[in-house]
Design a protein that fits this description.
Chain A is built from 17 helices and 18 strands. By secondary structure, chain A is of the alpha+beta class. Chain A is globular, with a radius of gyration of 23 Å. Chain B is of the alpha/beta class and 359 residues long. Chain B is 50% helix and 8% strand. Chain B contains 19 helices and eight strands. In chain B, the strands form two sheets. A four-stranded parallel sheet of chain B has the order 2-1-3-4. Chain B is globular. The chains are: A alpha+beta (476), B alpha/beta (359). Chains A and B meet through helix 2, helix 3 and helix 5 of A and helix 2, helix 3 and helix 4 of B.
Chain lengths: 476, 359
């Protein structure tokens, strides 16, 4: 879009008619704040004084109907639409790389219904997730989605990349928590998924949209299940001799009981970030584990966990470090505690079955440490979300002195990602566990899916034939 | 453009999203621009010459209540209001500030208060304490000021109020940062208070109390008297049994912790003690005490009334979810903002007046 063209102003005026003059902006300052999300490359670009990807026009709808009007306009004129919630995604998924319309949905933050009897809460998706949790906590309940980005991500953002929180091992991730959705399709039609998520009434529509990263439509309302705040929540910590023993013990634990939190740190992360934030000084593989729910059940689960840990020779560290970790669960992500520029860093999170997860850890570690020795790369990892069938690795690389030149840095960054991710794919893992694909991994989607990619492409083609929704993301 | 210290804070905040959930302006406007990280990012861009500090950016720096909710939440000690205030200085110096802001500054220059009117006088002679009324209570919420003086009188305390009470500098500091004009106001105010030679100054508006207690000393204009918030002073009188409210049930209420009591003084109990003494059954809002959401400030109401009323409306929404009948307030600025949008069947109560009525 050429800002000074007659057509630009015609479209702008149409958008103003749809959402109100005060909710449309072409001011450079307002557009510029969307050029940086949590993606390392966008930050590096800004830090180097480069201009990041900016939308042509910012539109802030206040209702589903207004979203619908905007998409009808965008679809008619074939204008790219990038949806922005909190902008806290680490994959560049919200960056308006194709320009066009930036749809900021944070005005849509109403609580629609909190039904304690049904055990559900319904809200608009522009609500900050912690606000939703506050509303539910007020009544003694919780959605139990507590990600590190909880205070900054929107409900829509969490759904768009199928996010996960620290209590996931017991309560699941977004696609376990969300019961139904209202979605505006790219052509402006407003649809509802079925009222319940489990049925035999044809294929479930929910998975088409949860995790679709704004490429297939815009989720505008969501209903979640809620659960009572736990009667007890007890934190524990253990130290294993190494991560191999830790993986074995954790597999056995998660196949016997349901901790809410189970975070196993490799030896490198134990002596770096764990030490820095909670002051734990010993070497080995640190595990913090939390059990919660009814007091009697938790007591029984504790007994089983302690037995399994003992069987694997773990040193029981009591409650202190688990409590400290829980208290500092968000501290890890503040400036000064988390990696920051000028460092180069990235989180290569993946998920696999138990038989593959340690193989992936070792293959990725080797692919990164061996291939990028000259860059003095460091590799750390923990596993923080567990299933009875498998687990995820939250592996990170860090380079303290990356190239200053942003273009050179970009190429190195992508080479590291390619190496790490391909090691994962070769060992039965997937591109990503819970941060999404975004711009960062878009190019690798076809490698991941192979011929199966045509299923996603067919969906995209049918729902968004003009390709206006979040272009260049998710490989679509 | 801004100091190295302010820029360092902006550089840290530009890539940190953690406090946005607490920003009352972001909540009500839904604008990404109205997040602490966005304001830090813009200033960082200016320092790297990839953006220009223009009128639009100046406007963005004024869309903030300076309520300190972000500072209170930050476990690393970075302070968005630090760079936002300095950016406001830059805006004023370069004549980029919004017209409404410049009008308030002109009002302060011509009349000594943001309203540009002659400040009503509450002057009286007394020998026990000095009461500092402040311009918002004097000009807009006079009932609260009268009630405080009545309470003291009923306790037998002889309160002095200055004739031509000078401005504390709190208003000007929010409009243009901690500049020389502000320290000049502070110095004049401190001189006037010190000249009264009374051991205690009871400050009705916690915004004034904050600048007196936490800024004056570093500017070399320390107040010799003990500076006490009016809420803490009255609560102490209650605790010591010097006030004997009649038992009268007034229904359920929630206390709003104003920005400065909540995050500059961490003072929560006195307001609740006053509410109980006035006969209210206390409920609590979920976001309270240090996490209390701002309901706006008098300065912001002056230059951006639409946004400030929305912010006050957001606080009313918090109150409505408690099922309480009344919002209880002991700060004139909070009272003024909340009074702009009282919901149907809800009541806004000035706690000083309520307590006075119960005596």
């Amino acid at each position: 879009m050429q800002e000074r063209s007659l057509m630009f102003h015609m479209i702008r005026s149409e958008l103003e008619d749809a959402v109100g003059v005060e909710n449309v902006s072409t001011k450079k300052n307002e557009r510029a704040v969307y050029s940086v999300d949590y993606f390392w490359l966008s930050r590096k670009w800004q830090d180097a004084g480069e201009e990041g990807p900016m939308p042509d026009i910012v539109v802030r709808p206040g209702s589903t109907e207004e979203v619908s009007k905007v998409l009808k306009i965008a679809n008619y004129y074939k204008i790219p639409v990038t949806t922005w919630g909190g902008g806290s995604g680490s994959q560049g998924g919200a960056l308006p790389v194709a320009g066009g319309i930036l749809l900021d949905i944070k005005r849509m933050d109403k609580l629609i219904d909190l039904n304690v009897e049904a055990g559900t809460v319904t809200c608009e998706t522009g609500m900050i997730f912690s606000t939703l949790e506050d509303y539910v906590n007020e009544k003694g309940y919780s959605v139990m989605h507590l990600p590190s980005c909880m205070t900054c991500c929107t409900v829509g953002g969490a759904l768009a990349h199928n996010g996960i929180g620290i209590l996931s091992t017991k309560y699941g991730k977004m696609d376990d928590m969300c019961l139904s959705l209202e979605v505006v399709l790219p052509n402006g039609d407003i649809i509802d998924t079925l009222p319940v998520p489990k049925h035999s009434t044809g294929p479930n529509l929910l998975p088409f949209f949860i995790g679709s990263e704004g490429t297939l439509g815009i989720m505008t309302k969501a209903k979640f299940k809620i659960v009572k705040l736990p009667e007890v929540r007890t934190h524990h910590a253990f130290l294993f001799s190494d991560i191999h023993v830790g993986y074995e013990a954790c597999r056995e634990i998660v196949q016997a009981v349901k901790p809410s939190i189970m975070r196993l740190f490799d030896e490198a992360e134990t002596v770096s970030i764990v030490k820095k934030v909670i002051g734990f000084e010993k070497k080995g593989s640190f595990l913090n584990l939390t059990l919660e729910g009814h007091k009697k059940i938790v007591a029984a689960e504790e007994e089983i966990v302690l037995e399994i840990a003992e069987k694997y020779g773990a040193q029981y560290l009591g409650h202190e470090y688990g409590e400290k970790w829980f208290e500092n669960r968000i501290t890890f992500f503040y400036p000064g505690h988390i990696m920051d520029l000028p460092q180069m860093f990235g989180t290569l999170d993946t998920v696999a079955t138990h038989d593959n997860i340690e193989k992936i850890y070792r293959a990725m570690k080797s692919a990164i440490e061996d291939n990028f020795q000259e860059n003095k790369v460091r590799f750390i990892s923990h596993s923080s979300h567990w299933y009875d069938w498998g687990a995820m690795n939250y592996s990170r690389f860090i380079i303290d002195n990356p190239p200053k030149d942003p273009e050179e840095a970009l190429r190195l960054h992508n080479r590291i990602w390619n190496a790490g991710v391909r090691a994962t794919l070769a060992n039965g893992g997937v591109l990503n566990d819970h941060h999404g694909i975004g711009l960062k991994l878009s190019r690798l989607m076809k490698e991941q899916y192979g011929p199966a990619m045509q299923v996603l492409q067919a969906l995209k083609k049918e729902l968004d034939p003009n390709g206006i929704m979040n272009p260049y993301k998710l490989g679509l | 453009m801004v100091s190295q210290k302010a820029l360092q804070h902006a550089e840290k905040c530009r890539f940190c999203w953690m406090c946005r959930h607490l920003c009352p302006v972001q909540h009500q406007t839904g604008k990404e621009l109205n997040t602490p990280r966005a304001k830090g990012l813009l200033l960082s861009m200016v320092s790297k010459k990839s953006a220009e500090f223009d009128r639009d950016m100046a406007q963005a720096m004024y869309e903030c209540m300076l309520c300190d909710a972000c500072v209170n939440d930050c476990c690393t000690g970075y302070q968005p209001p630090l760079f936002i205030r300095e950016a406001r200085t830059e805006a004023v110096v370069n004549e980029l500030a919004p017209e409404a802001v410049m009008q308030l500054i002109e009002n302060v220059e011509t009349s000594g208060n943001i309203y540009g009117t002659v400040k009503p006088s509450f002057a009286r002679e007394g020998t026990d304490v000095l009461v500092y009324i402040g311009e918002v209570a004097a000009c807009k919420v006079s009932g609260m000021a009268k009630a405080l003086l009545n309470i003291l009188e009923k306790t037998g305390i002889r309160a002095k109020v200055l004739d031509n009470e000078p401005a504390s500098g709190a208003m000007l500091a929010d409009l243009m940062g901690y500049v020389e004009e502000v320290t000049q106001q502070a110095s004049a105010c401190a001189d006037a208070i010190n000249a009264a030679k009374l051991p205690t100054v009871v400050v009705l508006d916690s915004y004034d109390a904050e600048i007196m207690k936490q800024r004056y000393a570093e500017w070399g204009c320390e107040i010799k008297a003990e500076v006490v918030t009016a809420t803490a002073y009255v609560a102490k009188l209650l605790e010591e049994g010097k006030l004997a409210p009649k038992s009268k049930k007034r229904g359920s209420g929630v206390c709003h912790d104003d920005d400065r009591l909540a995050r500059s003084f961490y003072e929560f109990a006195p307001v609740r003690a006053m509410a109980k003494a006035a006969g209210f059954d206390l409920a609590e809002m979920f976001n309270r005490e240090r996490l209390a959401k701002s309901c706006g400030s008098a300065v912001a109401l002056g230059y951006m009334p639409e946004i400030t009323i929305k912010v006050a409306g957001g606080r009313w929404q918090d109150m409505i979810r408690t099922d309480a009948k009344a919002m209880l307030v002991a700060n004139p600025q909070a009272y003024l903002c909340l009074s702009q949008c009282v919901p149907a069947e809800k009541e806004l109560v000035d706690l000083f007046t309520a307590l006075d009525e119960s005596l």
